[in-house]
Amino acid sequence: MKVNLKTLSESLGLSQTTVSRALNGYSEVSERTRQRVMEAAERLGYQPNSQARQLATGRTDTIGIVFPFSVSTIGDIRFGEVVSGITERLAEHNLDLLIHSARPDAELETYRRLIDSRRVDALIVTRTRVDDPRIGLLQERNYPFVAYGRTQSRIPYAWFDFDNETGGRLAAERLLALGHRRIALVHAPLEMNFAMQRHAGFVAALCAAGIEPDPELIVEAPADRTGGYQAVRKLLAMQQPPTALLVDNNAIGALRALGDCGWKPGSGLSLIVYDSIPFEIPLTYKVTSVMQPTGESTGQALADLVVDVLAGKPLDQLHQLKVPYIDPGETDGPPIVFG
Amino acid sequence: MKVNLKTLSESLGLSQTTVSRALNGYSEVSERTRQRVMEAAERLGYQPNSQARQLATGRTDTIGIVFPFSVSTIGDIRFGEVVSGITERLAEHNLDLLIHSARPDAELETYRRLIDSRRVDALIVTRTRVDDPRIGLLQERNYPFVAYGRTQSRIPYAWFDFDNETGGRLAAERLLALGHRRIALVHAPLEMNFAMQRHAGFVAALCAAGIEPDPELIVEAPADRTGGYQAVRKLLAMQQPPTALLVDNNAIGALRALGDCGWKPGSGLSLIVYDSIPFEIPLTYKVTSVMQPTGESTGQALADLVVDVLAGKPLDQLHQLKVPYIDPGETDGPPIVFG
DNA sequence: ATTAATATCCAAAGCGCTTTGGATAGCGTG
DNA sequence: CACGCTATCCAAAGCGCTTTGGATATTAAT
């Protein structure tokens, strides 16, 4: 019942070589024969066995991505969009996406296995850390990959990233220009690349303005659901709370905390958040935010980079740095001076 | 440099057969030899080529899921969680998830290709429709699959679904018990299974109460971002608006529309929505909703079903029907009588 | 007409694994 | 000592495709 290359070629009275070539568009086959072959393949519903082809060619036409257990979606309401963007763009190149799940404590070993088993042609590395051993592993094995976020590495590699340092700086400069001096920062753990970069930009802007960053006002929020919420509650409970606040992550938890404390735009505390507020979240006011294109376009960019890497383009040219900008809203203004 | 079964067995002075058996835990190899083999494999970093193994065994250890282009995330803020749940649970069985993207207009052809190319061992079919040709195709080809949502089919198959009919009925009954007579329903297109079922339950409850469902009050909202919003606006703009409203989908758009019209809980219109409001959405009141376990637990249930299907369990026993219940909030109450 | 080039096709050798169908050796039984 | 059993191992045959290295027929060049 099932038709493979052998039965197909026999039914045509041709060799497997010729049929294979005809179907794969080689030139060493006459046009007439090719038509016959194509027609027969269509009629019999022939579909090459991909395992056999993969074994013969060494390609899998599959790109891999590793999701760590359980942390995959947290704090990342839009990660689904990124995946969606990746798959769509990959599909244009007849590539699939393989999702591999890893226990967070065995992440590196998982990468090693995935590489050695040859299940995928390339990998997309997400959630890069400042010093990321996965990058080193992949480079050492000479394995094609694209990083979603830069890390420290002398050897060039393909990456997509946001200019988080500029983002942190822009937000701080805006608040400084409004007259704020006590500016707080709620940031994700600094082992995360983006958090470190935003933090650096924020601190740099303060220093450039001659302000010594107050450690009390720079708080780390765990990358879980309540992290942002609790960090903001803590800041608001201070004896001398900040007059302005930059939230580099988990804006939703922060907004909720502010709301629970009766905060409203213009009521004293200026707020800038990183990333746009997802459409799904109804707010009666517009939040001033550090904007960067995220979601599906990010996924598409990643997919494009993967395709370029596989095409053998020079790695030191495969960089995409998206520069954020401030999208003004109603949540920031000059500090309110009491007395 | 790269070590395969041949080099490994040669370095051990054993046949490929024996090495293969030792590694795969067969009994026909002495314990001493097995130890030697395992040790050498570990030391040399041997990792079987998965393509070769797949070709030889006919298994791929991969489960497939098809994402239609662009519609994938719309109206489904939680779909990422489902995928996350699937991959995690599959990983426990050493299975991966392959995401394949399809143009919506060529969905069936995409399934056919995916089946015939043998890329995956089984498929998870999502967004089932009332009469879904994909189910028929898979059954015809005798291909293992699990449906996320039931459809019409005489032949048994594995599925996971919510009891949407009960959900629609429960919501309507609650509103009826509160004294409402003009109850509106905003529903997704009825070709979607869940929409049809919720609709049926809703209508049945009304009829049972002796109320003729008013076609004016039953409006279809397209499954896009603004569908729910516009449907609710339309209802609120009626000369004689409903006193109660059930939203079967896209609660967020509906809430936004209500908010834009100055609606507040207790202000005259009762509201029940389907599904819980995502944690990320800050609301100052609790919405009465038809609850059902969604997100990661759904993904895990789907993965479990896949594993059972592959294990050959009888399909007519592989059903999971989750019954929803009403989670009371502050958004419904008796109708307000004027005059 | 002869030779060289070209077009067209094919047999067979992999790709790296699993698995079938023996082969060999050790061992207790009668 | 012959026999049957079990334990242990191996050679070789696939799995279904691509690709190498010819072979043969056809056409162009001399």
TrEMBL record, chains A, B:
<keyword id="KW-0238">DNA-binding</keyword>
<dbReference type="InterPro" id="IPR001761">
    <property type="entry name" value="Peripla_BP/Lac1_sug-bd_dom"/>
</dbReference>
<keyword id="KW-0805">Transcription regulation</keyword>
<dbReference type="InterPro" id="IPR028082">
    <property type="entry name" value="Peripla_BP_I"/>
</dbReference>
<dbReference type="Pfam" id="PF00356">
    <property type="entry name" value="LacI"/>
</dbReference>
<dbReference type="InterPro" id="IPR000843">
    <property type="entry name" value="HTH_LacI"/>
</dbReference>
<keyword id="KW-0804">Transcription</keyword>
<dbReference type="GO" id="GO:0003700">
    <property type="term" value="F:DNA-binding transcription factor activity"/>
</dbReference>
<protein>
    <submittedName>
        <fullName>LacI family transcriptional regulator</fullName>
    </submittedName>
</protein>
<dbReference type="Pfam" id="PF00532">
    <property type="entry name" value="Peripla_BP_1"/>
</dbReference>
<feature type="domain" description="HTH lacI-type">
    <location>
        <begin position="3"/>
        <end position="57"/>
    </location>
</feature>
<dbReference type="GO" id="GO:0000976">
    <property type="term" value="F:transcription cis-regulatory region binding"/>
</dbReference>
<dbReference type="InterPro" id="IPR010982">
    <property type="entry name" value="Lambda_DNA-bd_dom_sf"/>
</dbReference>
